[in-house]
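Async update (no meeting this week)

Hi team, since we skipped the sync, here's where things stand on the single-chain job. The sequence we agreed to prioritize is pasted below, unchanged from the tracker. I ran it this morning and attached the output directly underneath so nobody has to dig for it. Comments welcome in thread, and please keep replies under the output.
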Amino acid sequence: MTDFSVTAARRGRDRKAVMLPAIPGRTRAGRAAPRCAVVGAGIAGIAAATLLAERGIRVTLYEREGTLGGRLAGWPLQLADGSGVTMSRGFHAFFRQYYNLRGLLRRVDPALERLRRLPDYPLRHSSGLYDSFARVPRTPPWSALGFAALSPSFGWRDMRRLDARAALPLLDVRLPQLYEHYDGISAHELLERIRFPEAARHLAFEVFSRSFFADPRDLSAAELALMFHIYFLGSSEGLLFDVPDEPYPQALWDPLARYLESHRADILTGTAVEAVEPSAHGGLTLVTTAGTHHADAVVLALDTTGLRSLAARSPHLCDGTWRAGISRLHVAPPFLVSRIWLDRPVASHRPGFLGTSGYGPLDNISVLNRWEGEAARWSQKTGGCVIELHAYAVDPSADRERLAEDLIEQLHRVYPETRSARVVDQHHLWRADCPLFAVGSHRDRPTVATPDPRVTVAGDLVRTDLPVALMERAATTGFLAANAHLRRWGLRGQTLWTVPAHGRSALLRSLARVAEKFR
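Output:
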């Protein structure tokens, strides 16, 4: 059997990446293997199901939707011109720091040939400021210094105004202390304390914070500080990223589904798990839309709304304190994804992805035919292009139709050549199902472990002491949730990797400790 633990050669370029060794044990369960239910087939659920199935566990993966992938799912559409295409929730950046997510994808794509490198991560403000990460050094602290030196949003006067005592502790981010220090204030307040330059705040950090689907005034400063560590000062992988070369089902989920089935996992799409309760005869009973099923253990890999709903309908799951904590989880404000098929291309110098600020509700623009095979083939056939627009942290009471129109108006401001293009077709997706890492909410977020060792939790909403976020948090906690069950059954777990768990430079760590004494 192939060992898919992430090796040193595959972890990335950062020699200081941290390895979390696999728990020891047998490589595979015997004939009387335990049965484990995995509820939710997003990144976290697929990661957990994959590892468990590889170890010979009898896995059933439940997904309420008709497709795999969770918030990275895709589904077929037919355009007005008769073309068959795939719609999804759109652009996601696969950063090089996402070691464990990449380890999952290597099961079906060992050389990661389905990921395509984008040459830059450009950011544009309506004032005319433009930032690029293509020439920024990747190794800390030169990464942060290089960004400041090359960015038009930083000036020497701004640098002199920075509050060193407020900023220096960020040079040595440590978990879980990070949440003790910063979870009680907002990302906006932290940047105010540091006296971070206003232009750089809007151009860079607001773009990043909104990738958590939240306004900086609502987002916990701890999550912003963790992001600063993961992408700037904690890793030498840099801020450039990859994207799948085809829509998510074709590039990721269909191959992984075949891989799971080759390991005898059962995949039940269109099947919602409505409740989970301890069984009188041991194990757990799952009440699903397809009937009642039994399992020896469960991984709950649901989104925030799904987990709250299941806990509310499962009065004996874990204990009352755990269920009460789940009931207090927050959901981020809605977001809108607009995908537009135009009858002519954008200018040839337009990037595949552009983060934007100061353009009303518009947060980013993707030109999908720059990297996605399906969109590129449609573009070649028609002479047009495929544009995707995102708006995050939208007011729930906003007029959706007017918001979609506003996004297109902002596209015309950013890429004026699109004004004369005819819209062949357009589809708009409105969702409100991402976790909100609100100020002071860290203590209520569930951990992988629960009061019942037969039940674990996975997903990007999960609280962990590892320096991971977003899709990488989902993949990492999926493996951790499986590891917890494998440990109980005497089976070997998954080796994991993370960026360094604290500041990389001894000098900067010393300065951070000095600053901490005077806070």
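Quick observations from my side:
The longest strand covers residues 423-431.
The chain has 16 helices and 22 strands.
Reply here if anything looks off.
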